[in-house]
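Entry 12.
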Amino acid sequence: MAHAARFVVEYGEIREGSADIDANPDVAHDDLRAWASAPASACPLMISNLERHGASCKIQLLELSIPFWNTLERSIMRRIKLRHLDTLAAFMKTGSVTEAALVLHTTQPNASKSLKQLEDFAGVKLFERSAGRLRPTPEAELLFAHATLLMDELMLFENLSLDLTTMSQGYVNIGILSAFSTALIPMAVERFNNLYPGIQVQVDLLDSDKIHTYVSRGNYDFGLVHHPEHEADLMTQTLKTSSMVCIMPTNHELAKHRIILASDIADQPFVTYPRSVPFGAAIFRSLSDEGVRPSNSLISNQSQLIRRLVERGRGVALVDHFSVWDANEFDHIAVRQFEPRIPVSVGMIIPKRRPLSLAAQTFVGTLKEVLEQGPG
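Predicted 3D structure (tokens):
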């Protein structure tokens, strides 16, 4: 190796595995193999079997021209590692290589080696030896200031990763129909928030078309609708199927019945949805099939308002069962099965291009628990 030629490992077959076996003891063998796509000016010199630290490696050595070697050398030197920053920080804080090694639970030679590699990487003198001690130059102090910022950011990254894993931080964004906002989602949010108070939960009320559009764009983690539409960029799942129920004040005469028939509400003040919305159309169609024409002087497209009007004694109503899922917790209204049955469901839509976060998965699990445990 008298002239400018240098040698690198082109390939190796490590039978027992050792990152020690390479042309540079600080660079992994696989990295050298990747760098060894040498130009035509690199000619094979020899093939040799090398045994080192009990591991065998078959290597091919290449003689490289000066330009290629300079490029390779810069690639090697630019590979700064976290241990270089750790060593610099420990040295700058203790003022001693020996003490820095103790802090890092390594040896003094290893600490000195890391500082030397960092200096080579920087390309400027970082340390001077004076009176038998290594002292940092102003350049080292400047790099240390930036290294401290990097280390702080890394710590924040590690802490955030831990928080996300342990559900100490995070967020869940949901788009839902208003029918689910009166009972079902408040019940799920309450339970979830008690378990994971650090997770931010945002719930937006939208119509079905907007929920499908925004979820497909990735604006929400998932959406809740009654009838999920099968679209190319959405995954759908029916979480629960139920039916429309009849609600009335707890002191109403119909509250004595376990099942309410269409004929039972023929002469009752009736609060209902407009015919222009799917629920309203389904209700009027069902009642019409039974020969019933209710007196519907109070109409709203919001399940929550219909429920409040019934609580205030304004009449009886047929509503989405999920909008009164918590009715047994309170004594304002009675909920009774209605026949003929008008089916309703709660369906979830998820964007295909983005999987659910851990927080969103956990919230969905909580929602399923609320649904499986039933009303009240």
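Annotation: The longest strand covers residues 234-249. Residues 74 and 117 are 12 Å apart (CA to CA).
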